[in-house]
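Morning!

As promised:
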Amino acid sequence: MNRALSAAFGLVMVAAVAVAADDAALIVAGLATLAVLVGNVFRPAATLAVLLAATALVLNESPAMLAALSGLCAACYLVLRHTTVITAPTVIGAVGFTAVGLATVSLRVDLPWVPLVAPLAVLTLVALVTRPFWADR
Amino acid sequence: MIEARTTEAQLRWRPSSLTLAILTCVAVLLAVAVIGSLWQLVAFAAPLLGVLCSIGWQRPVPVVVVRADPGTHRCFETEQARVEVAASPRPETDSDALELTVSVVPGMRIERTDSESRRHSTVVVAADRWGRYPIQGRITVGARGGLLEGTGVVDAADVFVFPMAPPQSTAIPRTDLLDRLGTHLTRHIGPGVEYADVRRYVPGDQLRTVNWPVSARRGSLHVTQRLTDRAADVVVLVDNYPQPAGPATEATDRTVRGAVQVVQSALRSGDRAGVVALGDRHPRWLGADIGRRQFYRVLDAVLAVDGGFDTTPGTLAPRAAVPPGAIVVAFSTMLDTEFALALIDLRKRGHSVVAVDVLEGAPFEDEIDRVVARMWSLQRSFMYRDMATVGVDIVAWREADTLDTAMQLVPDHRRTARRPR
């Protein structure tokens, strides 16, 4: 049951990025589907499937809405692949951040200094997010 | 009384495989997004970041309690012991996140494992050598929405495996026994079976002791005297001091085995038996007593099961543990000076002391030169002689011999046990 649900989420993730895909993106999406199927048995393949889906997304130049949908499915897919249930805080976190991500992407601001700040912002973000995992040691 | 034991596991929390997978994806996606200015990837990575951030709002980590039934199990060598181990989280979380695997230390083997569920299993274990064997429960638990993984090892239960002693009776050294009825034939005259002498009747003698044939022949009343049987107090001294690695450590196996055999044969012949385990700064001792229950109490004291024994500080045998006139049989590798001092102290208190040397040859792990081996055996024989001069007889007990044959070699010089004044 759990395995089938996670596979379904994985296939939706691939399908969302493969909408109206052409040659290269289609091939990568096919590989991602294969990785989703392998991930059912071999867990690390699930990570590869998510990364392949992201590659297909870039190649296909999908709209932001489909990217967010695919990302949401990817999160659910990974969580279900590694654990048995999705807790409420996980869903709230994923959906909330999807909204924030969509807002960020849609508010395209063309300021000249954004590329300069972006790496630092991303680094700070990752550090803040991972803080609970290393802070207490 | 057999009762269950509950232990709280000390868990170490680490990021789980889920966290690592999501973090890998997020790091790769954001790096590519920044380098290539690909804004769709930010939208794609946002939900994954959200899952990582949700750790702050997840339920707190559970406390895992491992319950073992029975918590303490006693059995003899090669006997099977059945222990039920179950783990439960507090507060209750989803059932598949907690996994319990039962393992044992080397020397013990698992005969059968029945896993009712992932957190509850029953093991049947057995061991070939005496000792204390902890049954370990290895716990893996996921918490905080699967983002953290806790692992821990708990000593869920203890299986105490008692040594099986050979049934042969061991001889006790000849000494003046206490005036108490028992099974050891003495030269004292009193109530008994064995014929001793015939003497003239004096008023006060029981009429049934009158020897009528002799009385008729002599023309006056004569009575038959009998040799009396008396009981002994046997206190076994066990050397628990740490031993150097190699033959000395292997010899400690026979220390306990021999002690149990002496206690068993003493109790079987109706004597009082007690035990003193010297070493580790707190000697354990159990006062001398009779009966079958005492045998199991002695086993408990030797292996330090529960608290059925007394402890004292110091390195000498406490006075309360060794009643006056008791025979002391010590089992040791005779390598530790403090143990030898305890023996000499007991001798000075007037007990007859026999030490059984369980060490065979030199206590070196590697192959040694023949000259060194010879010097070692000379040194040992000097030590034997010196101790015998003090009054402590030492007999060597080799692996190939049985204890009863080794104890036949106790020198048979009659000593009068002097009471301390």
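The longest helix of chain B spans residues 247-268.

Hope this helps with the figure draft.
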